[in-house]
Amino acid sequence: MAGSPFDSGHYRLQRNLDVVMLSCLGFWALLRLIYHRTLPVSLLILLVWAGFCSYMVVQAPGNAIRMGGNSSSQDLVFSALEAAKFGWVYFRNLLFQSAILPLSLLFLPIAYRLTDSRSPARVYFAINGWLALGFYLGLLFILTFLHFWAVGVPPVARLLNVVNFVWVVGWFYTLTFFVRIFRGTIGSWPLLLRHRWPVILVVTVVLGWQGYRNANVRLTYEDLRYGRAQKYHRAMMARYQLMTSARADTVILPSLPVLPVSLVLDDLSYRSGDMFNDCWAGYFYRKGVKLRKVPVPAVTPQPDLPQIARKP
Length: 312
Fold this sequence. Notes:
By secondary structure, this protein is mostly helical. The protein is about 65% helix and about 5% strand. A two-stranded parallel ribbon has the order 1-2.
């Protein structure tokens, strides 16, 4: 599915994915050095290649325009403080307003099996707890911090998808890690051994209620059901094809036929000098891009009809 029509958003999404990849590879290398005192050549090659690819993404044309659009961008102290304040409120709301807590109840028996002494997956949860928790929280902070540092404003929803993914995966990993630590103290607690139908029923009701109240779920469902997402995808693919095949320095694009609100909120501008238009043009090595103006049909004048006075 194509993303936002503003390729600066694509860059920031790719940047977050690159940070996750580099962080995971770096943490893996750290664990290898701590527990095995060796660093495989293959892992070192992956780190170097991942770093090179991330550098190429950062140096892509159009990024400097986007990063220079706010006076608060690239301010280290401002970005750190704002990321901490934003993260405290955002992740607190995720914890109590999302479905993570009900799903955690269903995950407990799975975590219990994963940490069993006979489970081959137990080794992946046998690392130092402070290292795992520090990496998890640190990665969440970095992903939030980078957006403030780059553009000086809180991350938009499409970029928070990567943050949410890391938060969910890290949450269940940390939950499994704590089950491994405390399983000897807890013992054979029935809630951990297998799924109970009353728990499943309660969790199902809670998830259904939360999904019904969630505006994002309804918007996504409607965009998929009524074909708006598919029309948007096809239009974006046609735009990409036109940008790569056109020979003119300034490319004129048709307007998007639909704007599915679960994916995008606005289109490019009719003016070539708009900032988002410049970002789009820069990624395709063009001097400019703008939307084609749709001619307004002329209004045919209507003849004046004689007024008939009503008799009293």
